[in-house]
């Protein structure tokens, strides 16, 4: 938006106002689109607060928030009885296994992701999701990318669960 104002103001010296505004219009549209895309994303301070709140929750409360967030996103959510995954997400006849059991771990290595991948194979799930509040090692990131496992952490986790936290009044 600042660029649009600058372009319009500087071109007004050379062109009539209507032409200056017309030239600035693409920048206005890009600014509006970017604002629309960022509408549900909490800022850095709010993300840190949300992550702190999430770390204070027990496993059942945290899992309930994750379930709520995915239900609102249109998934059918079922509990998964295995060791490696906590939830099975169903949408359009596609199964995704989600692991959020160890979300408080300071750093996640490749072990839990391997276990999730094995569970995905056993359940014939098309994808996997691993949720973490802490850091994820570079080796684990590479493994997840190669094995169709989405990693949700930090700001992405805050964005995913912010609305669910609000709905619970936390």
Write a concise synopsis of the structure shown.
The protein has seven helices and seven strands.
Number of helices: 7
Spatially, the strands of the biggest sheet line up as 1-2-3-5-7
Look at the structure and give the CATH class of the largest domain: Alpha Beta
In percent terms, what proportion of residues is strand? Answer: 15-25%
Averaged pLDDT, please?
Answer: 86
* Rounded radius of gyration (Å): 21 Å
Whole-Å distance between the termini? 34 Å
Helix content: 55-70%
What letter string, H or E per element, gives the SSE order? HHHHEEEEHEEHEH
CATH architecture of the largest domain: 3-Layer(aba) Sandwich
Q: Say what the CATH topology of the largest domain is.
A: Trna Endonuclease, Chain: A, domain 1
**Principal-axis shape:** elongated
* Main β-sheet description: 5 strands, mixed
- SS elements, strand count: 7
Q: What is the number of domains?
A: 2
Helical/strand content category: alpha/beta
As residue ranges, the low-confidence spans are none
